[in-house]
Inverse folding.
């Protein structure tokens, strides 16, 4: 029987308990899955939105009210907000060294993205279902 | 201010690096990512204003219609175009391809040029050129 492998971590390192949270791979994959969705959704959104804006307020209402447009708008905005929450998380983690500031900004990032999605979802559903 | 207490020198940083294409591309990807983060506030505000009614929609449309509004909107379009095309380059790199320095620099430059082309193309569709409407977006708006 071989001896159990000795840990490479120092006693201090063990006590602090810092290190990988084992969430890196999921972050990497979901960032890219949302990116692939956005490759298709963003060009549609931009071109379709231009048509809507040309028609003024009535054109905008008609555009959002169309069932297919409503679903695609929710997908596009949802995927974009999901993707940018992940991206901003990395930016904050990279540049903000101070723990308290980092925590506040990471929480704020989540609040902003969830908040924007709620507003967008409310707006689209109100128009499309009414 | 900073809580950085480690006295040891930091690794070489932006100031002593010679600028190169893939470095500029990497930085631009972040900058445009943050730009898109800010820009989506306009999109969500527009959706909300549309749902809330003309009292909200018209002032916002007026604000966007000013020269500064249009400039910001074009910058946002440019930012989206760059991040989208460079994002595709990143997805290609994730498969282990396009990683050698020479081709990487070429692709970075190509993405930069194409992103300007894409942004201008999107704006041409928006009707700034009279009579140019290949997708019949003006008809779709009626």
């Amino acid at each position: 029987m071989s001896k159990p492998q000795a840990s490479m971590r120092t006693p201090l390192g063990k006590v602090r308990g810092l290190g990988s949270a084992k969430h890196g791979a999921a972050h990497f994959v979901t960032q890219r899955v949302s990116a692939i969705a956005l490759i298709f959704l963003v060009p549609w959104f931009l071109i379709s939105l231009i048509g809507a804006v040309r028609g003024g307020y009535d054109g905008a209402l008609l555009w959002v009210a169309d069932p297919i447009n409503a679903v695609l708008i929710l997908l596009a905005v949802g995927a974009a907000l999901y993707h940018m929450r992940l991206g901003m998380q990395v930016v904050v983690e990279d540049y903000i060294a101070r723990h308290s500031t980092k925590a506040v900004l990471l929480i704020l990032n989540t609040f902003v993205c969830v908040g924007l999605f709620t507003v967008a979802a409310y707006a689209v559903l109100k128009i499309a279902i009414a | 201010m900073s809580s950085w207490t480690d006295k040891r020198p930091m690794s070489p940083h932006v100031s002593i690096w010679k600028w190169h294409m893939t470095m500029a591309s990497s930085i631009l990807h972040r900058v445009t990512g943050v730009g898109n983060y800010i820009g989506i506030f306009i999109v969500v505000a527009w959706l909300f204003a549309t749902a809330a009614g003309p009292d909200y929609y018209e002032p916002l449309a007026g604000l966007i219609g000013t020269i500064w509004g249009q400039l910001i909107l074009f910058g946002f379009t440019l930012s989206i175009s760059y991040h989208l095309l460079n994002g595709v380059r990143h997805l290609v790199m994730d498969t282990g391809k396009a990683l050698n320095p020479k081709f990487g620099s070429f692709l970075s430059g190509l993405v930069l040029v194409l992103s300007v082309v894409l942004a201008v193309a999107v704006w041409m569709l928006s009707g700034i050129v009279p009579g140019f409407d290949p997708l019949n977006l003006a008809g779709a708006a009626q």
